[in-house]
């Protein structure tokens, strides 16, 4: 099991996994496929507990229009699309479709609810803003290259409606954010977005120890 929670040796994590996580056959298929990828790529799989949490939020809010920034193999996209209503839609952005398992989306019966936007995500978000206008989406999930996190966030705040949510992944970055000796570009980018969101008067926030750190931002 590649999922962060499912592979943890912490007994509390194991207990949470065994007593809450519900995976479909298609979700398991994407998890297993991701585990076969070379190098450190399997570590990029979204957290299963985080994706399931998003499913609860999306259903509770009655979300119909969502954006995901960073598709990878398509696990979180599958989770989100599976709880959208029949007239709901997810736009998912990635630089290319090398690893996206759209065949599994089709098997799960959600492929028609997902549009893949290929190319630099900043450009895709600007296009979505031009085509749909501001405040036209209910839920936006940011989980892509860290260097552009702040720009993704700024565009997401424009795109999301009042009382909509922007969720930011990897905001703990494996604990590196509190390691003062770590001055790598990705760690600094995470610190930058965390500091910016903390002080952003446009949103209310909740910073959770979920997955690798998940920050929820409700647009006021």
From TrEMBL:
Keywords: Methyltransferase, S-adenosyl-L-methionine, Transferase. It comes from Adineta ricciae. PANTHER family: CAFFEOYL-COA O-METHYLTRANSFERASE 3-RELATED, O-METHYLTRANSFERASE-RELATED. This is Caffeoyl-CoA O-methyltransferase. GO terms for biological process: methylation. GO terms for molecular function: O-methyltransferase activity; S-adenosylmethionine-dependent methyltransferase activity. The keyword Methyltransferase applies. Belongs to the class I-like SAM-binding methyltransferase superfamily. Cation-dependent O-methyltransferase family. Pfam families: Methyltransf_3 (PF01596). InterPro entries: Cation-dep_OMT (IPR050362), SAM-dependent_MTases_sf (IPR029063), SAM_O-MeTrfase (IPR002935).
